[in-house]
Design goal:
With 268 residues, the chain is mainly alpha-helical. The protein has helices at 2-31, 38-41, 45-58, 65-96, 98-111, 116-127, 131-155, 159-167, 173-183, 185-209, 218-227, 231-262. Helix 5 crosses helix 7 (131-155).
Length: 268
C-alpha cells in the first residue's frame, strides 16, 4: 500500500511540476517581455501545439516529417548496433588476452574523452559528406562508454564465479559466455542507457551542424525551422525528440532491465 502511495505521489509531483512550467511559459509568452521578439523566443503553447501537428501534416519543402524521423532513426540504429557489437567484441578479447586488455583499456580511456563533434571535421575528411559520417559519429559515441561499462562489469565478477566456471570445464570464450556476460548484465544495461543517450545527442548535433540533403534528419529539420524563423515548429520538433527518447528509455530499455537485472535480483 505504501509503495502504491509513493508511486502516485511521484507521478502527481511530476505532473504538477511540468504543469507549473507550462503556466510560466504561457504567462511569459502573453506578457511580451521581449517586445516584438517575444513570440519568436516564447511562442504561445497554442502555436507550438499547432506547429506540432503541422510538422507531421506538411513537413518541409515537399518532404514529409516522417522521412526526417525515419532517416535519423535508421542512421542511429545502424550506428548503435555497430558500436555495441564492436564494444562487446573488443571487450571480450580484453578478457581473454591480458595484453589486449591493457592496450584496449588505454584506448578507451583516451577516446572516451574526445567529443564526437570535435572529430566531425576529421570524419568528414576521411569519409566525405554522406550519411556514413553520422553513422561513424554514432559509433564513436557508443563504443567507448559501452566498452567501459562492459570492462568494469567483467572485472567486478566475483572470483568464485570464475573459479566455479573453470571447475566445470569452461575456459576462454566459453567462460566469457557462461560466466562473465551473465554476471555483468547490470553493467551492460547501464552501458546501453549511457550509449543510447550519447548516440541520440550526437546524431542530432551532427545533423544540425551539417545537414545532408540526400538523407535529411531531425537535426536538419530543426536547423531549417531556425533559418526560416519558424520557432514554434522548432520547439515542436524538440518535443518530438523528447518523445522518441522517452519511448526508447521507458518502452525498450526499462522493460529489458526489468526482465533481466531486476528479475535476477542484481538490482533493486
Amino acid at each position: 500500500m505504501n509503495v502504491t502511495r509513493e508511486k502516485i505521489h511521484n507521478v502527481v509531483s511530476q505532473i504538477v511540476f511540468y504543469a507549473i512550467l507550462l503556466v510560466i511559459w504561457e504567462l511569459t509568452a502573453k506578457a511580451h517581455i521581449f517586445g516584438e521578439n517575444s513570440e519568436l523566443i516564447f511562442p504561445p503553447l497554442e502555436n507550438i501545439g499547432r506547429a506540432f501537428i503541422d510538422n507531421f501534416r506538411y513537413g518541409y519543402a515537399n518532404t514529409s516529417f516522417w522521412i526526417y524521423i525515419f532517416n535519423s532513426l535508421k542512421l542511429l540504429l545502424l550506428g548503435l548496433i555497430s558500436g555495441i557489437g564492436l564494444a562487446v567484441l573488443f571487450s571480450s578479447f580484453a578478457i581473454v588476452s591480458r595484453t589486449f586488455y591493457y592496450i584496449y583499456n588505454s584506448v578507451v580511456s583516451v577516446c572516451d574523452l574526445l567529443p564526437g563533434i570535435a572529430l566531425l571535421p576529421v570524419i568528414i575528411v576521411i569519409f566525405g559528406i554522406n550519411p556514413s559520417v553520422i553513422v561513424v559519429l554514432v559509433i564513436h559515441a557508443v563504443i567507448w562508454p559501452m566498452s567501459r561499462n562492459i570492462l568494469d562489469g567483467f572485472y567486478a565478477v566475483p572470483k568464485i564465479y570464475v573459479e566455479a566456471g573453470r571447475n566445470i570445464g569452461l575456459k576462454g570464450f566459453s567462460l566469457l559466455l557462461g560466466v562473465y556476460i551473465p554476471a555483468s548484465v547490470s553493467f551492460i544495461i547501464s552501458g546501453l542507457k549511457v550509449s543510447w543517450a550519447r548516440a541520440w545527442r550526437g546524431l542530432i548535433s551532427a545533423e544540425m551542424i551539417f545537414g545532408i540533403a540526400s538523407c535529411p534528419g531531425i537535426g536538419l529539420f530543426i536547423n531549417q525551422m531556425r533559418t526560416n524563423m519558424r520557432n514554434a515548429e522548432m520547439y515542436a520538433t524538440l518535443i518530438v525528440i523528447i518523445i522518441i527518447g522517452l519511448i526508447v528509455q521507458y518502452g525498450i530499455l526499462s522493460p529489458i532491465e526489468k526482465c533481466t537485472v531486476k528479475r535476477w535480483g542484481l538490482s533493486k
